[in-house]
Amino acid sequence: MIAVRDKVNFIQTGWMVNPALFGDGRPWSFGLWKGVNRTGCYNTRCPGFIQVSRTDLLSIPLSPLPKGEIGVYLSIEQDKKTGNWWATDVKYNGHGMHIGYWPKELFDLISTNANMVGVTGAVQASPSGKSPPMGNGYLPTKNEMESARVRDVDIIDSNFKVIGSRKYKLEKILDSDKCYGLRDGRKKSFDEGTYVLFTYGGPGGDSCGI
C-alpha cells in the first residue's frame, strides 16, 4: 500500500465473511484493490483483475480442513518485467498457482513498489452497534491452536528477494481489547513446526469500540 495526501493505492487478499457481498454466511477468499482516481472494487465486480487460472479462482467459498480449520495461503507479488501485481495460491510443495493479476495501469502510486505490508483482521459493527466475531470467535491464549493465527509473512524487497517478516519492524495495532485480542506467537523455526507470527480474534459483542 502507498498513501500520498488524498491518494491511496492498495491491494488486499485473504478471506472474509460478508453476507452483503457473497449472499451467505460462509467464509470466502477475496481480492480488493484501490487505484487511480479512487477506482477499485472487490474481486471482479468492476473491470480490473484479470483471471488467468481456469481452476483456481480469486473468490471461492472455503471448505474446512479435516480438523475443522480454514486456511488461506495467498501471496501478492509484482512481476519484475511487466510491473503487474499477481495473486498466487501458495502451495507447500513449492509450486504456487498463479490465480490472476491486477495490471500496473490500474495504479499510480504502486507502479513500482509499495511502502507498507500489512496482515490484519477486521470487523464491521451492525447498525445496532454490535460487533461480530473475528477469526474463529475465540480470544487468543497461550495455546496457539485455540484462536485464529497468522504464520510467518514473507516480504519481497526492492531487489525481488524474499525476506521473512522477522527482518522487519512489526507494528501491532489493536483497536479494542474489550472484544478482541492480539498475542505474539512463538519464534521458532518452521522445521520445528511451531512458528506462529501472531494469534488474534475474539467473540465481538456490544460497545466494542469498533
TrEMBL record:
It comes from the Eukaryota. PROSITE patterns: NEPROSIN_PEP_CD. InterPro entries: Glutamic_endopeptidase, Neprosin. Signal peptide: none annotated. Residues 1-209 form the Neprosin PEP catalytic domain. This is Neprosin PEP catalytic domain-containing protein. It comes from Brassica carinata (Ethiopian mustard).
